[in-house]
Amino acid sequence: xxxxxxxxxxxxxxxxxxxxxxxxxxxxxxxxxxxxxxxxxxxxxxxxxxxxxxxxxxxxxxxxxxxxxxxxxxxxxxxxxxxxxxxxxxxxxxxxxxxxxxxxxxxxxxxxxxxxxxxxxxxxxxxxxxxxxxxxxxxxxxxxxxxxxxxxxxxxxxxxxxxxxxxxxxxxxxxxxxxxxxxxxxxxxxxxxxxxxxxxxxxxxxxxxxxxxxxxxxxxxxxxxxxxxxxxxxxxxxxxxxxxxxxxxxxxxxxxxxxxxxxxxxxxxxxxxxxxxxxxxxxxxxxxxxxxxxxxxxxxxxxxxxxxxxxxxxxxxxxxxxxxxxxxxxxxxxxxxxxxxxxxxxxxxxxxxxxxxxxxxxxxxxxxxxxxxxxxxxxxxxxxxxxxxxxxxxxxxxxxxxxxxxxxxxxxxxxxxxxxxxxxxxxxxxxxxxxxxxxxxxxxxxxxxxxxxxxxxxxxxxxxxxxxxxxxxxxxxxxxxxxxxxxxxxxxxxxxxxxxxxxxxxxxxxxxxxxxxxxxxxxxxxxxxxxxxxxxxxxxxxxxxxxxxxxxxxxxxxxxx
Length: 561
What we know:
The protein is an alpha+beta fold. It is built from 17 helices and 29 strands. The strands form nine sheets. It has a seven-stranded mixed beta sheet with strand order 6-15-16-22-19-18-17, with helices on both faces. α4 packs across α13. The chain is globular, with a radius of gyration of 30 Å.
């Protein structure tokens, strides 16, 4: 180091109580240049410290549903609807981050299954259809869930979400336990607690009960129902299961009578079937082809639970893919949609290790379906259906042909025959996918000995794509360059401006809401290389990118091109 450089360093130390050197001017840089840039500032050294962070050490993470709900509210993802009135069961509002995340998820699905395919077109049908629609589709007569009431507590349950088991000791029947559907660990814990209390009440404390044999409550006989305890009262106070129609009824028009009764749609699929001919004649499509729709649906759930997994107002993303008839035709199309559906879920960031498959067979298969396979996901409350891919046959178009008197057939020029098309239906709930993506993204790790919580959203669905960070907020030349970059990036993506606090704290704020990239504009940017530092959320690695290459760099990382 030259004497001039040494003198400069001493000068820096003397003035350190009033001045701070820009982060780009370390002693290493001083050796190469005798010029030191000083600027008056109230900024601390920690705020302008942009040196690379230590390597990331992943940590095992286990979370409960309560923690996910708390995280969603705390970070502005999802709120309870009508919160100031103590909420309204089964309804939720999406906050600033949640609405952006939801839009990105729907856009990704639409792009994947509609925009990038020549054989699928879109539709946006009304929420309320002619009431005859639901008579033809079977929803008015058969769209129901089994329900039981607790006669003592007046609580209401879905019977297929309650599980009972006999309590036996060496084969001797002593009574029953009844638990609500949850993950295996919680169900076993609740059942053991009830069994322990039962044994104590029979003065058989200390004896070990035989393994539980759980069945759905709908399988219980009338005699067993008289002995099975209610989860609410702990006594045998449950009614026999009965059907409860899930349709939301409303009135249309100025007069309220039987002729004005209508229903909010319980699924989006029927709007597609009603418009089959309209779309076919205007889109110039030929079978095989699909009609896609994203839209709201409503079901008057008996017991909405598990946050947004089972709610009364929800959103669906569905395709009805129409194919020729034939037992040798549908299996290949069904398999292709299974593969495409899995590929999409992985494409938007779902963890493959939390996914599974559930093939419907026997009584689980709808009477009109040729096949149905669910993609499942391991939520904190257990493994549950995320989406279904069904081979529905020609049931729906046939029902609407009979109900409307209008022909919904198709003349196949290649096969030289007329037929009512069959269809494959991949159906995915937006809200369930949102919950699965949040569960997949939640992570904890350690950076330099400090624990970090973050959301590892895939860049294409992240609610905030980029956070622009001017190194200091009181240097006009630097801030103006950062603001210009922010304005350019905002024309493409949802971008955040953050100029407050130490740079490390700003990184953590971005990590917590799942922002994949932070762009820091520093003194090197405006005085040396006209480049910025781009920091990766998952690895915390930083790269220096010329200003005119920032958009292309981020575009490839976020959009894939």
